[in-house]
């Protein structure tokens, strides 16, 4: 019997240990080094992307997650509408593994000549499939690597996040803002920085406290984080998660304000909704498909790394919640006009990090490549980045 | 940093684990280890969420969550008690089966909105300094779990039913001699345990997060199994263990917010490390308190 106790304790602790690792590794971390992979060995007879019967979309999560995947799904609907002759093939919950390759191969067998792998981690599987099928065109979302027949595109979502920061900074009574984030990849850190800079531009003492959950979607951890932040006196919550519902609803229940991400979710927070940064992939997807089927991918702006901006309407700010006063709306609209016109650039130097070290020199102009390699928090952000 | 905040955080994050621990405790007291706890919890979370969406009544949802947990536990009970399958293998299989099944069945429920449990401030009591915010501003299922602990203690140690249940886990031949069927008592205990575990899942989906997403329990059911050992198969100590786990979750978030330069990835481990430490410190002592019948788990004959 004594032996048994030891065994049971051992088994339980090994399982607990297993989940420790799950808890620590449930993130898809990014590499930030841009590189171009080798071109496919054989030249295709026709231009990649032409002559297909279908367009394929693969999503890493569910299409109705009030988040990243929903935004991409809406874009796929626009493609469906714009190209009645093309069948739109969709696959949800496609993991970022070799499984993704299998799904893409299946789509190609079903006549797809253009495929949209929409998650960061779908890039390597897509590169493998792209090598095997030089006649198929791939548009990968959010990556930094390209190939002969694979272009990547994304949006400067930090622009609307900056604008949302202005609204949050104005609306907060305590001047303490909270940002619940997933994992420390440059995109996430950049958004936090943009939010804090927006808030600070209207309220110099505004701070943004950051909490990492270690996962793109863990509602229990998100609820813990939201509650904990509100307990500490934070009165506006924003987030960088794939599933955004829990944070918004928890804030609403506790009487805090919320700034959304990925999707318009004001219905979840009729009292506390401020605004949200969203993706508008529809027009972009349609234009990319058009470029592809016409055989004009080579040499087009999508042949490489394309970044849609606020001025291109690829990223947007949703309408404001009903309790947002007019002067705040006006302030945001003014900055929005300046961002679109290019007269306002929050990341023009000097930009200092949390310790006061200069990260972007005074007078240095905005460089998107540099922003996409952000590995620091700006002054006013409270929280530490896992190394 | 504020003690009340960490305390309330501990209760908020620990309640679902508490239900699962109490459920596992009942099953183990009757001599059956159910590593499928994680699966029962997930089943409960989805069952409760789905029924709350349909009925608009979270109490009906919680009931459905309990039943879902029970049904999954029944699979385990049948395999282990009737088919004499290895309890560890069966439990793990039930866990992975439930992870897959709930992901599949739950797809239509991702981000459905519900009117779930809301926090209820208890009049007068919630105004007591310190204790008020700590104990008396929670949702219905949390209050229920607090009442469940003494109730379960009373049932186990002060009633005839409790004696029979505990005897089944210790000396089933005695129970048999007295004219009871250890087999059916075990069935009852495993299913009752599954019911409570399912309510733990319900608390997570309908009270705490108001959300369903696949695999949302993230290992909490397994932690519950570990906590039962820490608890030496006693309800009050299971409560302590669950709140310790919840408290570690709350603490790591508060530490992150203070801006200390500690990697959040290290902090994520805190609740699990504390669970491991607790096991490390008490497991040796606890062995003498373990129901003897659990030994059968390890030779493949887990039931009466």
From TrEMBL, chain A:
A GO cellular component annotation in the UniProt record: plasma membrane
Organism for this UniProt entry: Paenibacillus roseopurpureus
InterPro entries the record matches: ABC-Purine-Binding, PnrA-like
Gene3D superfamilies referenced in this protein's UniProt entry, alphabetically: 3.40.50.2300
Domain ABC transporter substrate-binding protein PnrA-like: 54-336
Keywords: Signal
Protein name: BMP family ABC transporter substrate-binding protein
Signal peptide (UniProt feature, chain positions): 1-23
Keyword Translocase in record: no
CDD domains per the UniProt record, alphabetical: PBP1_BMP-like
Top-rank lineage group of the source organism: Bacteria
Taxonomic placement: Bacteria, Bacillati, Bacillota, Bacilli, Bacillales
From TrEMBL, chain B:
Superkingdom as given in the UniProt entry: Bacteria
Location in or out of the cell: Cell membrane
GO molecular function: transmembrane transporter activity
A Pfam family per the record: BPD_transp_2
Keyword Transmembrane: yes
Positions of transmembrane segments: 59-81, 88-110, 140-157, 222-245, 265-283
Keywords: Cell membrane, Membrane, Transmembrane, Transmembrane helix
GO CC terms of this entry: plasma membrane
Transmembrane in keyword set: yes
Subcellular location, principal: membrane
Bilayer topology: Multi-pass membrane protein
Entry protein name: ABC transporter permease
